[in-house]
């Protein structure tokens, strides 16, 4: 309304007008003045995340529903969010999925916003082709990097642009990589938020991780042998991780979900992708580990060879005389050693 008044368009609302009546008057004013309205609303998923201020939240969703379903052609309404389950939130296709309703409790009482009118597009997080990956990383580091340096960084970040930004900032600032632990490797952390995710989706996450380890068995074996036979930095830098990592197909995902019963659905997988436990393309045609480092850590945990791993392979990189702590903090110090030297070329 304020934007219309900037075009000297007067709107005469009756106090008793409902949302539909208000939208109809705005549409009529737009049509009369040959104007169009582009409305972009971000973080819509946050409206569903709590039942506090319930009436206000539902009123906002109702207004968006009316805008999305009007047929005048004078409105273009884009709703955005950071949750991959947003398409299911707006169409209320998750009302019987308890784990997700726990995250978005307002869904039960929210209006159906019509998923046909709001055609959803998810942003892909699948592994990038190497030349695209290199351009992305060089942009964040503001430097020309060798293929070996790009491989070392992508070992840690995968194709996640947010992780690239965090790692490049930490590398330039000399930050402690322990401070990045929650965002870089959320499934290896044991804070309250990760524990909550593990409680709700742990069985699914463990099953998917085991399948990714099985699919990438040869790559993990090569990586282990490389750490044993050469310098750890050389081993990490020699492999184009984003091109070698294999993912789980949608058909296989469906088989896994069917085997696990009614506790989980594709929406559950989307939730784990949102929380950084995995990465995927926009349609979940393929599911990948969030990064090679993340998958390698999970592989080591399952082999129960962390002690041998730290002593024989990463120990010399951390300290020359004392054995490193056999925990994830030590692993993150290794991450720092892998990435921080790249900042020197910038």
Task: Give keywords.
about 350 residues, mainly alpha, 3-stranded antiparallel β-sheet, two-stranded parallel ribbon, 5 strands, about 55% helix
Structure in words:
It is built from 18 helices and five strands. Helix 6 (130-141) crosses helix 7 (147-157). The longest helix has 24 residues, at 192-215. It is elongated and about 80 Å long. The chain has helices spanning 2-6, 19-32, 54-69, 86-90, 98-103, 130-141, 147-157, 161-173, 181-184, 192-215, 217-229, 232-237, 241-244, 250-260, 266-274, 292-303, 306-318, 328-339, and strands at 37-41, 75-79, 248-249, 278-280, 286-289. By secondary structure, it is mainly alpha-helical. The strands form two sheets. Strands 3-5-4 form a three-stranded antiparallel sheet.
Poorly predicted residue ranges: 305-332, 339-346
Order of helices and strands: HHEHEHHHHHHHHHHEHHEEHHH
Total strands: 5
For the residues shown, what is the average pLDDT?
75
Distance between the termini: 48 Å
- Strand arrangement, major sheet: 3-5-4
Number of H- or I-type helical stretches:
18
- Helix proportion range: 40-55%
Strand content: 5-15%
Whole-number radius of gyration? 24 Å
Mass-distribution shape: elongated
Structural class comes to mainly alpha
Summarize the main sheet.
Answer: 3 strands, antiparallel
């Amino acid at each position: 309304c304020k934007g219309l008044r900037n075009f000297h368009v007067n709107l005469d609302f009756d106090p008793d007008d409902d949302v539909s009546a208000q939208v109809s008057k705005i549409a009529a004013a737009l049509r009369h003045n040959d104007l169009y309205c582009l409305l972009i609303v971000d973080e819509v998923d946050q409206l569903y995340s709590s039942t506090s201020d319930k009436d206000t939240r539902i009123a906002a969703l109702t207004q968006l529903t009316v805008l999305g379903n009007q047929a005048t052609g004078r409105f273009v309404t884009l709703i955005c969010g950071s949750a991959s389950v947003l398409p299911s939130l707006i169409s209320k296709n998750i009302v019987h999925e308890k784990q997700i309703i726990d995250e978005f409790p307002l869904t039960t009482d929210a209006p159906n916003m019509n998923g046909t009118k709001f055609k959803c597009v998810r942003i892909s997080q699948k592994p990038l082709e190497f030349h695209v990956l290199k351009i992305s990383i060089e942009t964040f580091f503001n430097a020309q990097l060798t293929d070996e340096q790009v491989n070392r960084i992508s070992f840690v970040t995968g194709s996640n642009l947010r992780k690239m930004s965090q790692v490049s900032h930490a590398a330039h600032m000399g930050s402690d990589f322990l401070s990045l632990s929650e965002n870089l490797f959320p499934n290896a952390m044991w804070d309250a938020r990760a524990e909550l995710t593990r409680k709700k989706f742990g069985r699914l996450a463990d099953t998917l991780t085991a399948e990714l380890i099985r699919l990438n068995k040869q790559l993990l074996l090569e990586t282990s042998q490389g750490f044993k036979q050469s310098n750890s930095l050389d081993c990490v830098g020699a492999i184009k991780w984003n091109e070698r990592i294999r993912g789980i197909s949608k058909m296989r995902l469906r088989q896994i979900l069917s085997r696990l019963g009614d506790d989980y659905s594709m929406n559950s997988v989307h939730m784990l992708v949102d929380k950084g436990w995995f990465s995927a393309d926009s349609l979940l045609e393929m599911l990948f580990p969030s990064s090679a480092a993340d998958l390698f850590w999970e592989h080591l945990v399952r082999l129960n060879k962390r002690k041998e791993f730290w002593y024989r392979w990463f120990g010399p990189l951390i300290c020359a005389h004392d054995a490193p702590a056999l925990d994830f903090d030590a692993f993150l110090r290794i991450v720092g050693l892998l990435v921080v030297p790249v900042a020197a070329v910038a």
